Amino acid sequence: MGSETFGGFQGIVFDAYGTLFDVGAITRACEGVTGEPAAFSSLWRAKQLEYSVLRTVMDCYADFGEITSDALDYVTSAYGVELAPYERRRLMQAWLELPPYPDVEPALDHLDAANQRMLILSNGTRQMLDPMVERAGLARYFLAVLTSERVQSFKPDVAIYQLVTERIYARMNELLFVTANGFDVAGAKAAGLTVCRVNRTGLPLDPLGFEPDMVVRDLTGLVDALLAD
Ligand code: LAC
């Protein structure tokens, strides 16, 4: 594996939320229900992550749709917001209709043209991810969408990352895992994958004891690093 030049990977595995799909759309969806949409949506996402980690640690799986709904219950109570049923449906629906970041499709197109095998590995469910990937016109780029449902636990549990070598026969470090989420950088490194951090926001790396193998600003940077001659 030419890890110095970042070529020669057996496959590239992408995280979904925040990496391929713009979770900023959730903030915009929250504008109609609170005067503090950024803080409200940020607590919603933080609770979603917290509940997925807690349920993994407690060995008490509920799927990502249920967790997202539970997290919304928490944040509405915390903010004293009463949601009409149609508003609640609209907020939950926003998770199924996240747009891809503008750099995503051109980058996948380049990687596909260079014969890269690509997967999605996400904490989401097939029911949440498949329509969103399809709607964004990205389904043709991926061999498979792998989800937490198979192992009934969530990233950063090592077990979920191991799903990737069932789909692409390779050693873990021969696969490049691409994520914008700090906990996912640490989890994927702990599981033995080679990791590219997409630092779209300029935020610091979570100090969990693992450094990514490469850092890019967006997927255009990934293409430049992988396909540079
Ligand atoms: C995912 C979230 C964690 O797609 O970003 O798995």
Q: Would you write up a description of this structure?
A:
With 229 residues, the chain is an alpha/beta fold. The protein is built from ten helices and six strands, in the order E-H-H-H-H-H-E-H-E-H-H-E-H-E-E-H. It has helices spanning 24-30, 37-57, 64-79, 85-94, 104-113, 126-135, 158-161, 164-167, 182-190, 219-227, and strands spanning 11-14, 118-122, 144-147, 175-179, 194-198, 214-216. The chain has a six-stranded parallel beta sheet, with helices on both faces. It is globular. Mean pLDDT is 94; it is low at 1-5. Bound molecules: lactic acid (LAC). The site of lactic acid (LAC) has 10 residues, from loops.
Number of strands: 6
Mean pLDDT: 94
| Beta strand % | 5-15%
Oligomer: single chain
The structure class reads alpha/beta
> Main β-sheet, in a few words?
6 strands, parallel
Low-confidence stretches: 1-5
Which range best describes the helical content: under 10%, 10-25%, 25-40%, 40-55%, 55-70% or over 70%? Answer: 40-55%
The helix/strand order is EHHHHHEHEHHEHEEH
Number of helices: 10
Q: Give the overall shape, derived from the CA principal axes.
A: globular
Q: Order of strands in the sheet with the most strands? A: 3-2-1-4-5-6
* Rg, Cα atoms, Å: 17 Å
Hetero ligands: lactic acid
Straight-line N-to-C gap: 16 Å
